[in-house]
Amino acid sequence: MADINVTLNPDLLPNLLSDDGEGMKKLVESVLNQVLEAQMVEHLGADRHERSSDRTGYRNGYRERQLMTRVGTLILRVPQTRDGHFSTDLFRRYQRSEQALVLALMEMVVQGVSTRKVTHITEELCGAQFSKSTVSSLATGLSARVNHWRNRRLAGPYPFLLLDALVIQVRKDDSVVPVAALIATGISEEGQREILGLTLGDSENEASWDDMLRDLKSRGLCGVDLVVSDDHKGLKKAVQRHFQGVRWQRCQVHFLRNILGHAPASQRGSLALALGRLFRADTKEEARTIKNEIFETFEKKAPKSMECLDEGFEESLTILSFPRKYRVRLRSTNSQERLNEEVRRRERVIRIFPNEDSAIRLIGALLSEFHEQWSTGKKYFDMAEYLEWKKQEPLKTPSLLSVVE
């Protein structure tokens, strides 16, 4: 799609901070209407009243269409063509996660567990009255779309697999319990990043990870050379069961936090700087030299931190076996942070998901939108160097086996 230039109306800007949210609503409305106009220009090959040999058709007015969002119900002017062939995916792409959020709020209202704030938001978005049958019908339709995406066939192989867990709060019967959203991201041999799977479970439970990996394999996941994750109990055993001999990279960001968490407050600053040097090492030999220097300085000042460092040292530097150009992005699960932030942003509105199905709908709808952007956008990696390296570098190593035996 062509680049879209958006012009902001100066008259709208002073109202952005108004308490009633009307300024933000009008701004979003203005931006999306400009997006629709740009899509029409691209479709026709010419702007309004423009004479061009590239023109493929002519305009035929507008039709209004509503779009429910968290800033209110927007009225958008959708351009029409004389032949009726113009279509836009704006509503489908934008509304999937928005609808999931609104639906979660509606479920809270009909179940009688909503706060005054949530009730007010749903009344603004949907009107004061909606029935359980309306909510059920909306949920069925959205669940079908999300589950179709979750169960799709995977076009492997995926050499790099990143596994992450995000803890959310879900209502079960009369209780509120923590549940982990397990998320799998893969990078294909073509260098494209894709979101491969989502399920709910216990991030420290081997059975939860086992179920997820079994599902991914049944859908076509194969060719995994490296798994990147935090040190979740049970995860490594599940990985070894399904991908024997695969290399495992312990997330350096989580590992750093674990080490510093065991250090006295007075030592954390200097220890963090030293660990930064360690994780920037270019070879295992250089890293071991820096590690010995760290032990000389901190073994008595922060003994528990040194025990933690010693225990996870080798696993945190697995990535040094791979070509340099892939190391920064694969040494941690930080590439997942944008996903986590977007989930958290919506979770702050809901606070507690009314049920597990609601959590799957909202998180799944959001992830499917990211997946579409990633899988059709710019490549995450140029894999040529990796594929050449793979021909010469045996990948079957005891790096994970030694951990789980």
Uncertain ranges: 6-10, 12-19, 124-128, 396-405
Please compute the radius of gyration using only Cα atoms. Answer: 25 Å
| General form | globular
Helix proportion range: 40-55%
As laid out across the biggest beta sheet, the strand order is 5-4-3-6-7
The percent range for strand residues is: 15-25%
The number of helical segments is 15
CATH-assigned homologous superfamily of the domain at 160-251 and 333-404 = Ribonuclease H-like superfamily/Ribonuclease H
Please write the string of helix (H) and strand (E) elements: HEEHHHEEEHEHEHHHHHHHHH
Determine the N-to-C terminus distance. 51 Å
Q: Any idea what the CATH architecture of the domain at 160-251 and 333-404 is?
A: 2-Layer Sandwich
Strands, total number: 7
The CATH topology of the domain at 160-251 and 333-404 corresponds to Nucleotidyltransferase, domain 5
CATH domain class of the domain at 160-251 and 333-404:
Alpha Beta
Q: Helix- and strand-based class?
A: alpha/beta
Can I get a quick summary?
The chain is of the alpha/beta class and 405 residues long. The protein has helices spanning 22-44, 90-110, 116-126, 132-150, 206-218, 235-242, 252-261, 268-279, 284-298, 303-316, 327-330, 337-350, 356-376, 384-392, 401-404; strands at residues 59-69, 72-81, 160-172, 175-187, 193-201, 226-229, 247-250.
Produce the secondary structure layout.
Layout: H1 22-44, E1 59-69, E2 72-81, H2 90-110, H3 116-126, H4 132-150, E3 160-172, E4 175-187, E5 193-201, H5 206-218, E6 226-229, H6 235-242, E7 247-250, H7 252-261, H8 268-279, H9 284-298, H10 303-316, H11 327-330, H12 337-350, H13 356-376, H14 384-392, H15 401-404
Parallel strand pairs: 3-6, 6-7
Antiparallel strand pairs: 1-2, 3-4, 4-5
Helix pairs in contact: 2-3, 2-4, 2-13, 4-13, 5-6, 7-8, 7-10, 8-9
